[in-house]
Amino acid sequence: MSPRRSVAEALGTRSAILNRSVAIASAEGLEGLTIGRLATELDMSKSGVLGHFGSKEALQLAVLDRAGEIFRAEVWEPALPVKPGLTRLRVLCEAWISYLEREVFPGGCFFVAAAHEFDGRRGAVRDAVESRFDAWRGRLRKETLRAVDAGELPEWTDPDQLVFELLGLLMALNHAIQLHHDTQAAGRARHAVQTRLGG
Amino acid sequence: MSPRRSVAEALGTRSAILNRSVAIASAEGLEGLTIGRLATELDMSKSGVLGHFGSKEALQLAVLDRAGEIFRAEVWEPALPVKPGLTRLRVLCEAWISYLEREVFPGGCFFVAAAHEFDGRRGAVRDAVESRFDAWRGRLRKETLRAVDAGELPEWTDPDQLVFELLGLLMALNHAIQLHHDTQAAGRARHAVQTRLGG
DNA sequence: CCTACCGATCGGTAGG
DNA sequence: CCTACCGATCGGTAGG
């Protein structure tokens, strides 16, 4: 009868809001995600939604966190049990290709989309997006260095150059799938990764 | 005294609206481009702005056309006097790198941004963006085929594969400049293009 | 977690 | 090209 919910219920509600938010923001962007639409789809009032976060910006940051958890589980964690260096680098690339191919987020890579939406702005959301890319780039770079140290890649390999090119392939794949619905692009991305990393 | 303008004046006004629109949409996106903001910045009424186009969608399509003219002048036309085949392909890539480096559009490549903004939607704007990418890809592909026919690239070259990889490099560069303000990325893009196309 | 509200802004129209 | 307006929606707040 009471509108007040227990802590557990409140956490469940918050989680439900974030799940729905990720789905909406993936398709419409983090700005197209509106409190009113969330409230309607969740059969809540706007203030009920907003109460869990305080502001739209705080909601957007929480959505980025949730999307990050999904990305981590889909792309990063499968590579953790794998031997560091070239093997792990290959698994990371394949996991990202698969993640794009399966459209884990219906709008394509959540962070590539967020980067394009916020790169021309300032604020906490933009900073959060940038730091996530820095972290991801750093991980690819670290595995590249390990691979060079282990003699799995030529010693003249420039890690930043290689990572730049790998990121380009992943962005081209994301673009080909989302804009052109190109089903051959994943094969091209795999082929290009193989040219650079062998396998 | 009259609010009615001559045909020449009306065309000038329309052109002024489009110039301002390109600047706004490059930074804020084609959806963030609003009639009200345009009217304020141009010291016009909203209906005065809208009268030139009829609807926001028609305005967005006209803005894409104007942006296309700029892209054409910056990237395509410099390559026209150049010998077809590998040489022209190199000039096209260099022109695009330079266009991104000089930030001809302050928000990065206008069409990459539009693709990300509209790839999850339907309608005339999305279709216009996709067909522009098809045209651009077709041009790169044609020059690649010419280069292969002329023996300037190995006969086993897969044109679609090469174009996919070149587009990836350009997207990685766009991303590095816009999100990370990375001043070394243009050099990496040039190096990667050179690895593929020689020079 | 709700209702009820705020000022601002959206795309667009009527009528001139 | 204008003024004056329309209904819808935005993020957010007061008060409970």
Order of helices and strands of chain A: HHHHHHHHH
Estimate percent helicity of chain A. Answer: over 70%
- Provide the β-strand percentage band of chain A: under 5%
> Could you name the ranges of chain A where pLDDT drops below 50 across 5 or more consecutive residues?
none
- The tally of structural domains of chain A comes to 1
Give the name of the CATH superfamily of chain A: Tetracycline Repressor, domain 2
Q: Regarding quaternary structure, how should these chains be classified? A: homodimer
**What distance lies between the first and last C-alpha atoms of chain A, to the nearest angstrom?**
61 Å
CATH architecture of chain A: Orthogonal Bundle
- Compute the CA-based radius of gyration of chain A: 19 Å
The rough form of chain A would be described as elongated
Enumerate how many helices of chain A there are, as a single number.
Answer: 9
Please state the structural category of chain A: mainly alpha
Question: Greatest interface and its residue counts?
Answer: A-B, 42 and 42 residues
Please outline the major beta sheet of chain A: none
CATH topology of chain A: Tetracycline Repressor, domain 2
Question: Can you give the mean pLDDT of chain A?
Answer: 95
What is the CATH level 1 assignment of chain A? Mainly Alpha
